[in-house]
Design brief:
The complex is a heterodimer. By secondary structure, chain A is of the alpha+beta class. Chain A has one domain (31-205). Chain A has helices at residues 2-31, 188-194; strands at 32-41, 47-49, 52-54, 60-63, 68-70, 82-85, 88-91, 102-107, 142-145, 150-153, 157-162, 168-177, 195-205. In chain A, strand 11 and strand 12 form a beta hairpin. Chain B has a domain at 226-368. Classes of the chains: A alpha+beta, B mainly beta.
Chain lengths: 212, 692
């Protein structure tokens, strides 16, 4: 009988412990979401102007919060968090949009960035001279290699994003090309035709905390 | 491939075991004369510096046409196809290897690369190869080593005619005539080579290699004047012509440009030698060379076109005095003056001449200290007008333990002067991102000029650090052992290490408003190359010769190694695109370097005039370009595949008047459109040689 009692207590406490764990886990899953976006179009090249390849000049707006592309009509809203046009990435902040966005570039791996340190400074956009995510080769997220004429995201750069509504996300860009980065030896026109397609992974924390 | 490496080791190790067996040894095969190592004739086996010789017979039997063909078959040498076929030796690229023609430097480099397919094998007596820095004797460019092409010298009467036909309608015709007219020895040779080229990509709008022709004419003469004076002159002229068809897709339309690329080169090399006494002689040499390259392209129905012209001249006078003090003690000393200039529309306009003047002195002493120990000490000082001066010492020791085993150790400094491109280039690529590259001596002025035109967006902190370029310098260490085993088995091993600093690389100094970047050159990089070279040769029954060779090579950018160790370098995974921290073992070193390379060569030759050769050349995988954005070679997809090329030839000397040879290069038909555009695949040929 005594043995039965003990085993009952043990069983009950194990169940209680397990249920506690169960109760905790969904909380985390609810507020943190990780996803990958494939080949988001970013103002693909439509022709040449003064010998320079150009697109239509339009940003593609993306909402990290809702994991969806936002139409141009909502460009002046807080529905979007980031916008991409060529190599330029804007945040819904400063003079780019009405939101409470911002960003900075973190050096390290995506996995290592488990929380945003309290003293981190989020920059806001001041287009066209200074963006939260610096533009230019080797200054922000990408590097342009002039012998091969290819643009690659720099490994070890994570974009830490404050969304339009003031939540936090981390973004890692994997590729700037449709079908992945082309081989160095493919013709320049193919390189141009395949560029301006963002493939990126991100983790979004919806509870307003800086922990991923 | 591993089996080939293993084979080399077995040969070497097997030999070491058999070493106690002291049979009579024929060292004749090793006893050839080499001049490049010490600037004076020496027996190859007595040289304290890693050196080898390719004989005229080897050149003929391997069926090579161009210098790049035969060098690609040598241990420790790779031919890299980038702006022409350039050499890579001890892991150092073409710009750090000096190519000499009868002891005088060849000029006309594109992007630092001297295209070795420009040089015909015809009319060459032998090729001498010295590894490790030799700037103490030769000055700039002699960092990785020196290749000296020695052409047929007048003296032996002959009249040879050579005709060859091969795949892609490749035709090569040459003649070589030598006569003595009274006391004057004259030798004339000429070579003409043409090919239709080939396409590695079916249905391509342009061929991989366009039709081309090349021709070389040479005359050499020598004349003894009185007892003590000798006069000689070699003059050479070389032409190349390549068709150019370039198709570019632009907004869905194909734009075809047609044109040509041609080069013209002359070398004039007179000398006077005075034998003062049996022990002292002095030689005055002049060397006058010029190289012109022109590329012209025009588009149908379009105005203008592309016109690139490059004209380089290099003139020097030199005196060298040889003092043969006693049997094993030799001293040489010399001095010279170089005047070189370049005119090119790559820099500014053709009317502006960019110049440099160099004065130099050198001395070397070689002494057999004891019966077993010989040392060489040399020093050279180059005073330059366009950049800082350089002192290049070298010292080498040879210790002959006994008549079968000898050890060599040497250390020397090498340097490479900044070239005109790095000083004065003015290049803007309109097609690809509108970037510009300016030479270091003109960069700040150009940025100022563009700034005045309101075309500069911003400048970087690097702009203020632009300064007069210094020569790139290296320290090279070589240590080797040579062993003569019984039964005509020879083996040698050489360890090398080169530490290069002040390497010139490009960096961004400004951004244009159009988004394009402006680059210039800086003395920033430090690199190292090190490795081991193993060679063995064995003669079987007098008629069969087997040679094996292997090189292990490690290269690295030292700054990159440091930052990897500090955990500041990342790489991107092929599988999921996520970045991870890189480790030293992930780093693939400098691009275009193969960690492993090897060769096996069989040669059979009998007394009835029949010969056959089979040569297997392996080149291990090599890094090509960055794909994952860290600027380094690290990922699987950043390497070109290693490959094995087999070449074979078979020949018969029917009488003393004619020889016939049949050959097939690249028997396995290995092709790689992306990374080996210069390799056409399997190609057969037939060759006739007539002697009158």
């Amino acid at each position: 009988m005594r043995a039965l009692k003990i085993s009952f207590i043990v069983l009950a406490s194990v169940l209680f412990f397990m249920s506690c764990q169960k109760n905790e886990t969904p909380l985390v899953i609810d507020s943190v979401r990780t996803d990958t976006i494939f080949e988001l179009v970013a103002d693909t090249i439509i022709g040449l102007s003064n010998g320079q390849p150009v697109g239509a000049g339009k940003f593609t707006f993306f909402s990290i919060e809702t994991n969806s592309v936002i139409s141009d009509a909502d460009s002046n809203s807080t529905k979007w968090d980031i916008g991409v046009r060529g190599t330029t990435i804007i945040t819904n902040s400063g003079n780019s949009g009405p939101g409470f966005g911002g960003a900075f570039v973190y050096n390290g791996t995506f996995g290592e960035l488990t929380s945003i340190s309290a003293d981190s400074v989020f920059r806001v956009d001041n287009a066209p001279t200074a963006y939260a995510i610096p533009t230019g080769s080797n200054k922000g997220w990408y590097v342009y290699d002039f012998p091969t004429n290819l643009i690659n995201p720099i490994p070890g750069r994570v974009l830490v994003i404050r969304t339009a509504n003031g939540n936090y996300a981390k973004v890692e860009i994997y590729s700037y090309y449709r079908g992945g980065t082309p081989s160095a030896n493919v013709p320049d026109d193919e390189k141009l035709a395949r560029q301006r397609f963002y493939t990126f992974g991100y983790t979004y924390q919806s509870d307003g905390s800086k922990v991923f | 491939m591993k089996s080939l490496v293993l084979f080399c080791f077995i040969i070497l190790c097997g030999g070491v075991v058999a070493q106690t067996n002291t049979d009579s040894i024929s060292s004749k095969s090793m006893d050839e004369v080499i001049v490049t190592a010490t600037r004076s004739p020496r027996l190859l086996s007595n040289i304290a510096i890693p050196a080898s010789i390719i004989s005229a017979k080897t050149l003929y039997q391997s069926g090579s046409l161009r210098l790049s063909d035969i060098l690609a078959e040598q241990t420790g040498i790779a031919i890299i196809d980038n702006f022409g076929k350039g050499i890579q030796m001890q892991g150092l690229s073409s710009e750090y290897t000096l190519i000499l023609l009868n002891g005088e430097p060849l000029i006309g480099r594109t992007g630092g690369v001297l295209d070795l397919s420009r040089i015909t094998i015809k009319g060459i007596k032998k090729i001498e190869i010295i590894k490790g820095p030799s700037s103490s004797l030769y000055g700039s460019e002699a960092m990785g080593g020196v290749i000296n092409i020695i052409t047929d010298q007048p003296g032996i009467r002959k009249s040879d005619l050579n005709l060859r036909y091969g795949r892609f309608n490749t035709v090569d015709g040459s003649f070589d005539i030598a006569r003595r007219i009274h006391k004057l020895d004259v030798q004339i040779s000429s070579d003409y080579n043409r090919s239709e080229g080939y396409s590695l990509k079916p249905n391509a709008m342009q061929q991989t290699v366009e039709p081309f022709w090349r021709s070389t004419q040479q005359i050499s003469m020598s004349l003894p004047i009185a007892d003590k004076w000798k006069f000689g002159l070699t003059a050479r002229h070389n032409n190349t012509y390549v068709d150019n068809t370039i198709s570019v897709l632009n907004g869905g339309n194909t734009i075809v440009s047609k044109g040509f690329e041609k080069s013209n080169e002359y070398n004039i090399n007179p000398f006077i030698r005075l034998t003062i006494s049996p022990k002292i002689s002095t030689t005055f040499r002049g060397y006058f060379t010029g190289f012109t390259a022109i590329q012209e392209l025009s588009v149908k129905d379009a105005l203008g076109g592309y016109d690139d012209q490059f004209k380089q001249q290099f003139n020097r006078i030199e005196n060298q005095t040889d003092w043969h003090i006693r049997a094993q003690s030799n001293f040489i000393a010399g001095a010279g003056f170089i005047q070189e200039n370049v005119r090119s529309n790559r820099y500014d306009s053709l009317s502006i001449k960019r110049e440099n003047q160099i004065g130099y002195i050198f001395a070397q002493h070689e002494e057999k200290v004891t019966k077993k120990l010989t040392f060489i000490a040399g020093l050279r000082y180059d005073a330059n007008k366009a950049y800082s001066s350089v002192l290049s010492p070298k010292t080498a020791f040879q210790y002959a333990y006994n008549e079968f085993i000898s050890f060599n150790v040497s250390y020397g400094k090498g340097f490479k002067a900044p070239d005109f491109r790095q000083l004065y280039l003015n290049f803007t690529n309109v097609a690809a991102g509108s970037y510009s590259v300016f030479g270091a001596s003109v960069a700040q002025d150009e940025v100022m000029r563009l700034s005045d035109l309101n075309s500069i967006d911003q400048t970087t902190s690097m702009l203020n650090t632009v300064s007069v370029l210094k020569p790139e310098v290296s320290g090279g260490f070589n240590a080797g052992v040579k062993v003569k085993f019984p039964h005509e088995l020879n083996a040698q091993a050489n360890f090398f290490r080169n530490d290069i600093s002040n390497m010139i690389v490009t960096d961004v100094i400004a951004f244009k408003k159009s988004g394009g970047q402006i680059y210039t050159y800086f003395n920033l990089k430090q690199a190292l190359t090190q490795g081991v070279e193993l060679e063995a040769s064995k003669r079987l029954r007098k008629s069969i010769n087997i040679k094996v060779g292997y090189q292990y090579l490690y290269t690295a950018d030292k700054q990159v190694l440091r930052t990897i160790k500090q955990g500041e370098v990342y790489q991107r995974s092929i599988e999921n695109g996520a970045a991870t921290r890189m480790t030293v073992s992930d780093y693939g070193g400098l691009p275009y370097r193969s960690k492993h390379s090897a060769n096996i060569k069989f040669n059979y030759e009998n007394k009835s005039g029949f010969f056959t050769t089979i040569r297997l050349i392996y080149r291990g995988r090599w890094g090509t370009n960055d794909v994952d954005g860290n600027g380094l070679i690290n990922r699987e997809d950043e390497f070109a595949n290693g490959y094995m090329q087999a070449n074979s030839s078979i020949g018969y000397s029917a009488s003393k008047h004619w020889d016939i040879m049949l050959g097939v290069d690249n028997i396995f038909n290995y092709k790689d459109l992306l990374f080996l555009p210069g390799n056409p695949g399997r190609a057969g040929y037939i060759n006739f040689q007539l002697h009158f």
